[in-house]
Design a protein that fits this description.
By secondary structure, the protein is mainly β. Helices cover 0% and strands 20% of the residues. A three-stranded antiparallel β-sheet has the order 2-1-3, with no helix packed on it. The two termini are 21 Å apart.
Length: 44
């Protein structure tokens, strides 16, 4: 799962967290800047 860190400024802010994620079709990407990768593994 790819997760993006985003900080936005609005005119009437309120406390909240927004997490934007995507499940990529390929796994051969180079991640830079505001993108983090979360790996989910299955325990046996």
């Amino acid at each position: 799962m790819l997760v993006q860190n985003i900080l936005a400024h609005v005119t009437k802010p309120y406390e909240h967290i927004k997490i934007i994620t995507s499940v990529p079709q390929q796994n051969n990407m180079i991640l830079v800047d505001t993108i983090n990768q979360i790996s989910v593994t299955k325990k046996n």
